[in-house]
Amino acid sequence: MMLKIILNKENIARFIFLAAAYVAVACVILICVFLFTQGVPPIAKIGLGDFLFGEKWKPSQNLYGILPMTLASIYTTVGAIVIGAPIGILTATFLSYFCPQWLYKVLKPMVNLMAGIPSIVYGFFGMAVLVPFVSYTFGGNGKALLTASILLGVMILPTIISVSESAIRSAQKSYYEGAVALGASHEISVFKVILPAAKSGIISSVILGIGRAIGETMAVVMVAGNQAIIPTDITRGARTLTSNIVIEMAEATDLHRAALIGTAVVLFVLVLIINLLFSVIKTRRKHV
Amino acid sequence: MENLTQENKNIRINIEDLNVYYGQKKALNAINMEIKENEITAFIGPSGCGKSTLLKCLNRMNDLVPDFNMSGKITLDGEDINKKYNINDLRKKVGMVFQKPNPFEMSIYDNIAFGPRVTGIKNKDELDKIVEESLKAASIWNDVKDNLKKSALALSGGQQQRLCIARAIAVKPEVLLMDEPTSALDPISTEAIERLCEELKEKYTIVIVTHNMQQAKRIADKTAFFYIGELVEFGETHDIFKNPKEKATHRYVKGKFG
Asked: Are A153 and A87 in contact, with CB atoms under 8 Å apart?
């Protein structure tokens, strides 16, 4: 009798769903625990200030300052947004209010496809096309901060385009009708009424793009040059936080290895801050 | 004397042999009518009779509908609205208030100033003056004068609709089209809007679509009754409700169907 109650279909289904949900939560918690237990002690040993703001990363001399990498990550991400956000937002606007139906049927799947291209393929594209282009146009060997920014700018396009597009589409059609009924042209109605109404969704899309750009590793390693020095010029090479880990992890031991995990902690905290911003903006949007 | 002034009123809008199709479906059939200035003309009839379709022909909002098609001629002050006017200029002359209040997601001030800014007015003093005048004309100035920077979405439904009327007035139109402007509002707000319409007709030509027969009876000078895409009867509101010539009109205004 008891067994029958416990094993009825509803309870089994509930158990499976619950278990699935807990697996996801458990993964996040385990990652946090691993990162912080492994990553925080070395940061304490090196000294928080020396670790975060140290300008020299020389494991052979026991110098573990990650400021060059943090700056490189921030610069490439800012560069990616400067390049990717305007193109992405304008593309989303075009897709939702200017694009003829037949062209939409071609463009939309292409944008979706962009999201599915593996980052190593973007990396190859960067090596084969962007590196020579930057070298030819701006001098240097082409493996540079600028190259990484352009490539990341392209890579975040699908995120920005699809999230912005749905924000623009969810802005009420009645706003558009109200604007054209006042004698405003199609363009003015879209840019002055619809886009401001979709503002918080568009900002969300940019924040998601930031998250994508700051976490990208493979493609950046392939085009950024990877010198662990404070970047002084956008046409010079730089090494991001993610690159630093992937390049040195294989041969690192002891404190060096631990310092790389510490680098991951910094990256993780940066991403957490970005996610927090994202959810703050999303809840504010609901209240309006 | 009153009869004489009535006769002297100018014809603003003239509709000749208008047929409207949405794809294969015929929505309006051979409509002929004249709309005079400084009057309220009401379009009544059951759902799907074509009254809103006709209203939206007058400022060419139907152009937004992909499979919309029309034949015949609509003139504003004698000029064909589909030929003589640039569509945006036409819509500045023929303003519209929608069924559901649709203030933009901006401040009250920016909502009103939107239209004038589109026409190129940038001077702050001039905009301030237009905003004040328009809000006063829509009798909402006293409600909002201290909160012009507040979001328009924070207003009540009735206030939002009056704001939308003010926004339409701000571009100085000649004709005001209203598409069931009170159907989403409570009785008190409805009364306020109706009183407003009667004030506004001194300056504008008003065409109002309404589901509410009592509303047409209360405020309209002329009433047109539509049924299944046909203009069944059009005349003085008093006659339409008291002595309708057509059987269908009689049945509708007596509440027998619709």
From this structure: yes
What CA–CA distance (Å, rounded) separates A263 from A72?
13
And the tokens for A144?
């540079």
Residue positions counted in chain B: 258
**CATH number assigned to the domain comprising residue B29:** 3.40.50.300
Q: Considering only CA atoms, which of B102, B96, B92, B88 is closest in space to residue B56?
A: B96
pLDDT digits (tens, 9 = 90+) for B103-127: 999 999 999 999 999 988 889 999 9
Question: Residue B91 falls within a domain, yes or no?
Answer: yes
Class of domain A57-287: mainly alpha
Q: How close does chain B come to A182, measured CA to CA in Å?
A: 6
Does residue B71 lie in a domain region?
A: yes
Question: What pLDDT digit, counting tens, does each position of B227-250 carry?
Answer: 988 899 999 999 899 888 888 888
Range of the structural domain that residue B202 is part of: 2-103+175-253
Chain A contacts to B (CB-CB under 8 A): 172, 174-175, 177-185, 188, 192-193, 196-197, 288
Contact at CB, A178 and B167, closer than 8 angstroms? yes
Enter the ipTM.
0.88
- CA nearest to B149, candidates B178, B113, B115, B188: B113
Residue A13 sits at φ, ψ, to 5 deg, of -60, -45
Residues A172, B102: C-beta atoms closer than 8 Å: yes
**Domain boundaries of chain A, sorted by first residue:** 57-287
Q: B226 has which bridge partners?
A: B231
- Facing residue for A183 by CB, picked from B102, B105, B171: B171
How far apart are alpha carbons A241 and A266 in whole angstroms? 8
Task: Give the CA distances from residue B156 to residues B92, B107, B162, B191, in Å, rounded to whole numbers and listed in that order.
Answer: 26, 14, 10, 15
Inter-chain contact B105–A178, Cβ cutoff 8 Å?
Answer: no
Question: With an 8 Å Cβ cutoff, is B162 touching chain A?
Answer: no
Question: In chain A, whose CA is at the least distance from the CA of B115?
Answer: A182
Question: What's the domain count of chain B?
Answer: 1
